[in-house]
Each structure stands twice: as structure tokens, then as C-alpha cells.
Write a structure and sequence with these properties.
- The chain has 364 residues and is mainly α.
- The chain has helices at residues 37-47, 49-56, 59-67, 71-77, 86-108, 112-126, 136-149, 156-173, 186-196, 199-210, 215-220, 222-249, 256-263, 268-295, 302-324, 326-329, 351-362, and strands at 19-22, 341-344.
- Helix 8 runs antiparallel to helix 10.
- The radius of gyration is 20 Å and the shape is globular.
- Residues 2-16 have low confidence and may be disordered.
Length: 364
């Protein structure tokens, strides 16, 4: 779902007229949706609109954000979330996306002082201090965490793991030049992105959604940890494939396509094809890891089986979301679903660019 605040490319702007084939990975895991998704998505469009509007300071950008249907990601990745936790799960999708956009914008413009200030506001939100109204993304995180925490009193160990993960994510996003993407192997890139790209955050949300604590079992059972990591890698690889157009036009270089081009000496089209193949092979490894858990020593553990089942839905749901969200396709699909094929690599304006244009037009 997310592309994080990363160093921008120093090269010249890509041609706006180039056409490439965006291949669809051959994936087999089934897609499911949370039964409450329509009602929750409609409610969040009302409840979160004030935060989104304050964040972008533009009605046009706020409505464009809503058109991306970000909460739908929650319905697809956590279809079995407990009814009393479904709303906060779906809302957390808005939180992570606003947070990602906020850090990415400052990183793109090289505003380290702004990144440091934003980091401090988000960390304060995690610690329970309400951020000021002019930092609405951090305020939304604070409000959502408060609602989540009220349901986690019986699982203090889980909550500690979760908030430490959120803190690590915030610190990493505030330091976008700490890791040089031009020097990473694909394996090192994926290992870094499991933290930096919200990977551990979203799989911890799986535990919250199901009201389970997998901490000890993940530490003790390699097959279970492998299933989790393969799920995160699926999210990263599929995201990089579908977000390449958006990130390319924004001159961002933290994407597996660029890694593959450098490491395997591929052109852009060959790297896209290779990435799609990696998505497919990674799903196969995820299926194998889930089977190892289902037939191993944890076979009779209902919490574990529910967890690995939901991981499969996360992998499939992430891919489904990327096939229809306007976040990755703009208006090209007309509300439909991408089925693979040629795409014109025209620039997709960022929400910050839409907001700036809207504010400028309103002052004329």
C-alpha cells in the first residue's frame, strides 16, 4: 500500500510519453473482504475527512485521497478482523497513508528540519500526547492508537511490541538518507523494507485484528516467522510493481525495479517482468511456509492457524487493492480494475501537488 519517504533520483526527468507493459503477477491465493467494509468505508469518509482536509489544506486533494479508497485495503487484508476491532483496523489504513505521504513530501523536498519536527509529533502521539491541530496526521495516529489501546489491556506484551514497531517506523521515515538504495542487494532491500515499508506494522495489526499474541511463537518457530516475512515481502514486491509509475514520475529511487536494473543489469521493461515473476515465486514460498505451519508442531494451535490464514488474505488482498486503487492508476481505469498490459508512463500528480494547485487557484 505504501511507498515511503525516500531519496529522490538525481537523474533527468523520465520521458512522459514512454509506454511500458505492466505485467500482472500470476497469483493464486484467494481474496476476501471484511463483511462490514462498505459501512466502515462510508463512515470513515465522514469521520476522517476533517483530518485529511487539515492535512492537505485543500478540498480537491482531500477528495482525491478519499477516491483512492484507502480503508478498502483494511477490508482486504484483515477480512476476519473481530467486529469490535474492524473500524480501527480500517482507520489505521488512513493513518499509515497520511503518515507516509507527510514524510515522503518532506523527504522529497529535502526538509530535514521538517522531518525532525514531524518525527517528534508522531512519537509524542505514540506516547499518548495529543499533537497540535496543525499536525492532523499525527493527531489521527494518536486518536486511533487510543481507541486500539482500550481493547488491548489483556495483552500488554503485544501492545509493547506494537508501539515499539510504530516508533521504529517513525524514526526510519524521518531519516530517509540513512540507507543508500544504490548499494543494496535485493535481499538487503527487502530486509530493510520489512521495517521501513510498514511491513512489521501491518502484520502486527493482523494479531490485533484477531486478538492474538504471536510474539513467542514467532520467536520460537522459524516456519511461522518465514510465513510472516514472505507475506511482508509479497506486500513490498507487489507494491513496487504497481507503484513504479507513481514513484518514477516523482523521481523516487527506493523501488525494487531500480534495484533489479542495477544488480541484474536489466532495462526497465525487463526489470518489471522480473519483478512480476518474483511476486509469483514469493507467493509460492508463502504457500509452502503456511503449509509447513499447518502440518507442523503448531497444527493444533487455533490462534496460529487463524494467523497464517489471515496472512494469506493479506498477500492476496494487497495485490487486489493495487489493481483498482486510483493511488496507482490515476483516473486511467475509470473506476475499473487493471488487467495488465501497456501503460503510458505519464506523470501522476502527488496529492501535495494537487493541493498546491488547488490553493493557488483559490487565491486568484
Amino acid at each position: 500500500m505504501q511507498a515511503s519517504g525516500t531519496p529522490h533520483a538525481a537523474s533527468a526527468a523520465p520521458s512522459a510519453t514512454q509506454t511500458l507493459v505492466l505485467p500482472l503477477p500470476r497469483l493464486s491465493l484467494p481474496v476476501a473482504r471484511h463483511p462490514q467494509y462498505e459501512a466502515i468505508e462510508q463512515q470513515l469518509a465522514i469521520d476522517d475527512y476533517p483530518y485529511i482536509l487539515r492535512h492537505y489544506r485543500s478540498d480537491a486533494a482531500a477528495r482525491r485521497f478519499l477516491a483512492q479508497r484507502i480503508p478498502a485495503y483494511g477490508s482486504l487484508c484483515y477480512p476476519n478482523a473481530r467486529p469490535d476491532r474492524a473500524y480501527t483496523i480500517h482507520r489505521m489504513m488512513n493513518v499509515t497513508t497520511l503518515m507516509d505521504d507527510a514524510f515522503t513530501h518532506l523527504a522529497r523536498t529535502g526538509d530535514q528540519a521538517g522531518l525532525d519536527a514531524l518525527r517528534d509529533h508522531f512519537l509524542a502521539a505514540v506516547d499518548g500526547t495529543p499533537p497540535p491541530a496543525d499536525v492532523p496526521a499525527a493527531r489521527l495516529l494518536h486518536d486511533t492508537l487510543r481507541a486500539m489501546h482500550a481493547r488491548c489491556d489483556a495483552r500488554p506484551a503485544f501492545w509493547q511490541r506494537f508501539v515499539e514497531c510504530v516508533r521504529a517506523q517513525i524514526r526510519t521515515q524521518a531519516d530517509p538518507t540513512a540507507t543508500d538504495a544504490s548499494r543494496l542487494s535485493l535481499a538487503d532491500y527487502l530486509a530493510f523494507r520489512r521495517v521501513e515499508g510498514f511491513g512489521h506494522w501491518i502484520t502486527l495489526l493482523t494479531e490485533y485484528a484477531l486478538d492474538v499474541d504471536m510474539g513467542q511463537r514467532l520467536a520460537q518457530h522459524a516456519a511461522l516467522a518465514d510465513a510472516r516475512d514472505r507475506t511482508i515481502d509479497s506486500v513490498i514486491l507487489v507494491n513496487d510493481l504497481f507503484s513504479f509509475r507513481k514513484e518514477r514520475s516523482a523521481h523516487e529511487r527506493f523501488n525494487a525495479v531500480w534495484i533489479l536494473m542495477r544488480v541484474e543489469q536489466l532495462n526497465v521493461q525487463a526489470a518489471l517482468d522480473r519483478l512480476a515473476a518474483l511476486c509469483t515465486s514469493n507467493e509460492r514460498r508463502l504457500i509452502d511456509a503456511r503449509e509447513a505451519v499447518a502440518t507442523g508442531v503448531l497444527a493444533d494451535d487455533p490462534d496460529t492457524q487463524a494467523y497464517v490464514t489471515e496472512l494469506g488474505y493479506m498477500s492476496a488482498g494487497n495485490a487486489e487493492f493495487h489493481a483498482f486503487s486510483t493511488r496507482y492508476h490515476g483516473d486511467d481505469l475509470g473506476g475499473g480494475r487493471f488487467a495488465g498490459g501497456e501503460i503510458a508512463m505519464t506523470a501522476l500528480p502527488t496529492l501535495e501537488e494537487i493541493a498546491a494547485a488547488d490553493r493557488q487557484a483559490s487565491h486568484r
